[in-house]
């Protein structure tokens, strides 16, 4: 048979051991910190009913969602007319399930389905792949992991403050020291829309502002005009966006600008409370930056908005999130406020590779390999191997008797730091020949010495 | 909107925190032991090209595979004729990707695609969900995890022996002490087919023998007759299947029966070598049972066959595997022998629930919850919370000021063992009121004492 069959679908990836070890390092760091803050894990199925997914991500999302053919004879209930109505209509006849598109909508469904058993506030994290039929490009995949933490069932701004703490701790633990957590509040954006004379139009305003990084001020002004904002109003944005200073100074200036806006005052108050909590935790450096232009297109945010950038690395945001007051409304459960955020693991991986932040030695791979040359040595090795493993040392025996070079190549390739060579000399003396693969040195040791050396090194 | 939307696809499940904690306990136990034996993790995408999956699992497998609709206008290249040729032919026109059906075929594809970078023997483990459009029933799901470990690129029987060791260690670590690892060898089954006069018909023989548990001896005889075996030949099976004693005794009797079968001798030799290695490791109890009727329908096994049953629990096998000499042949790479096995995590979970083997207290949930009643106490608590977390203690603060009962209910429900109550007395005295949720007792402690008590308890 031909090799042409062994290909991967566009935009998907295998992760071999090297990559897995690094990815797991990121996942484990994040998981440990989520748990330290009282978050518990959940998982939802990859397959969701399309009735759950459809309409939650806009038209583009509905298009990019992977849909699964009904099993068995999916044409059974399809009429000739259905076949002629085009692919969109036919889809709903032959497919009732799709692949998870993000972790937020399945989480909302989970909360609604389990609302009688869950204890609120409910703090959950979820680390699972999602699928999008996007055009693949550098850093954009069709199957990729999301890594979310949310609290639902409380509007306490302490949750926002703890998100700041978790982002700080995760990134510092990973060695990414130079980053900025941009923060804003949807109510502040609403107030801006209000004070420039377009109350309720903050959606359009946000979409345009969101592009500031990409298209510059000129571009944003043009886009706002196209979206129906009068130039005179757009010019009113200038003094707002030019507000400078630290958070307290910016907020004080905005107090004046929002004097007539209840929404604006509320937004500033929320930001002040959150900042107060962060301060109360006594962080040396919060990495926080109140960015009044931060919008993050997503329309369901109602309070805080977060976005994290690594300084001096060109990669876009590595984390983001915010508060949403009506997450579960689409599933019939009103009045459940929540706040959450997500780490972009693929981008964090790329940043860590670029900055060479992964540990040189990993804790996953074998520490000791036994090498042998005949059946007698093999049998001699087995109880030694058992002892090492009983001491908690990851160890293996090269399974075939063969040339030493081949066995050492295997160890080198797997980055195994210690090799024990068992031959007739070792069997008769009872001592083991231990080769340190980094230093290249050999020494004779007893089993107890071997265990001590490996556990120390 | 209506609640009817929030449903799960048939045969799929959510895992809430309670279940996740237990499932992770199983996954972590298995992972730690796989790594201790030198296995490294890989992951492959959920989506595979149908050209990779189709034809690898028989007709039934092809039917039960979930297929994904091509994205965009999937009807673009479909002719009117295609629409009339029935759903099977249409499927190949509108779907080119499917969901992973097991972990073995994607692993074979991975090995072939990466054969120039991998170091052989390659020892990998893989823990990921798979999807099958099977009719859901108790213990059978449409989305479920598999948990595989394989070694490819060596025919050393040491790998078989280490599989026995890993099964032993995992099940003992999980507390499942009373189990049997049934072992057989495909060559022994071939030899049986040979000596009863039907060389090469071991496939049919196995399918029938495989049902011995379900349909009894009478049933098997009937099935064999239907499959074309003469009664006279079937009767020759009796003395073979009635061979009794420990492994050495059974093997000695089979030596005589297989005197004329090279394949039979080879099979027995392989079993003896494997048993010798297991013995060489010096296990107190191997749990091994040489079962000459063990067949496990899967036709790709060429050597050892394993199956693990928990004694006195009605649940079927919880692990199984074997050696296959031609795993990667379907992808154009010949001569790569491998041996592997899989843990059935859902069944292990059920066994552990039935035998009440999960630890009463888990390591995932919050250890200390702070409760407060006003903004002042909240701000007072933040630095204490930070200190606890810096000591590595999972801790949280109930985010809302509210009735103590509500806060304690939350802690109880989340099985948080310690609650610290912060009120005006505590703020003025500098002491903390610590409530032990199991014992119900309260005491006044300093922060240092709190940390000591929690770390000890």
TrEMBL record, chains A, B:
It catalyses: tRNA(His) + L-histidine + ATP = L-histidyl-tRNA(His) + AMP + diphosphate + H(+). L-histidine binds at residues 102-104, 132, 146, 150, 296, 300-301. Keywords: Aminoacyl-tRNA synthetase, ATP-binding, Cytoplasm, Ligase, Nucleotide-binding, Protein biosynthesis. Its main location: cytoplasm. Residues 1-383 form the Aminoacyl-transfer RNA synthetases class-II family profile domain. It is found in: Cytoplasm. Pfam families: HGTP_anticodon (PF03129), tRNA-synt_His (PF13393). Its EC number is 6.1.1.21. GO terms for biological process: histidyl-tRNA aminoacylation. GO terms for cellular component: cytoplasm. SUPFAM superfamilies: Class II aaRS ABD-related, Class II aaRS and biotin synthetases. It comes from the Bacteria. It is an enzyme of class 6 (ligase). GO terms for molecular function: ATP binding; histidine-tRNA ligase activity. Belongs to the class-II aminoacyl-tRNA synthetase family. PANTHER family: HISTIDINE--TRNA LIGASE, HISTIDYL-TRNA SYNTHETASE. Homodimer. This is Histidine--tRNA ligase. It comes from Rhodocytophaga rosea.
